[in-house]
Amino acid sequence: MKKQILVGLCLLAVQLTFAQETVKLFNGENLDGWINHGEEKWFVEDGLLICESGPKGEYGYLATDKFYKDFELTLEFKQEADGNSGVFIRSTFEGTKVTGWQVEVAPPGKDTGGIYESYGRGWLIKPDPEKDKALKMGEWNTMKIRVEGPEVTSWLNGVKMVHLEDEKIGAGEGAIALQIHDGGGIRVKWRNIELVPLD
Fold it and tell me: Residues 6 or more apart from 11 whose CB is under 8 A from it?
């Protein structure tokens, strides 16, 4: 009996280990596993993923080539110049038209950590204004996004920014993507993009 219990515990430990296996979405060397939507610049330099406005200064997206439903995503970003960007979840693309939801990455005072539905309902939730001080413009910031069923929660540098429960998001299917906003003059660096599947 003791042996059976021990075997059962070992199997449970193995299952938990695999259930929480971390997926490195960015390998620090190239853009393998990603798809570029648009004409903006995405490249790797010194182990960092960098996005820059192209000559046309239009919207651009770099999306995973796999879909992710329920997950906890962590990444670091450093905004240079304008720094208007974002992290999309459960999103699909037709050229540079995106169907999905963005966790905002933006300069101070522009609702980093809030959730926006592109080509749809617009802003779904913004952080309380006092939470904006969690953003460190021009320095490395850590963002965490948890997506499970219809619920989305975002944190910035350890500060819980928003929590939203939305049936439309719950039904969504798609990729994770990084955005570069239109308007030109934008440059953002990214690193340590890691995901733990929850499903």
Answer: none
Check: CB of residue 152 under 8 Å from CB of residue 101: yes
- What does pTM read for this prediction? 0.88
Q: Is 110 helix (H, G, I), strand (E, B) or coil?
A: coil
**Residue burial 104-141, b: 16+ Cβ < 10 Å; e: rest:** bbbbeeebbbbbbbbeeeeebbbbeeebbebbeeeeeb
Q: Can you say how many angstroms the Cα of residue 121 is from the centroid of all Cα atoms in its chain?
A: 20
Give Dmax (Cα) for the chain: 70
The pair phi, psi for residue 14, each rounded to 5°, is -65, -45
**Cα(7)–Cα(85) distance, rounded to whole angstroms?**
49
* Average pLDDT per 10 consecutive residues for the chain, totaling 199 residues: 52 50 96 95 97 86 97 96 90 94 96 96 98 96 98 98 98 96 87 95
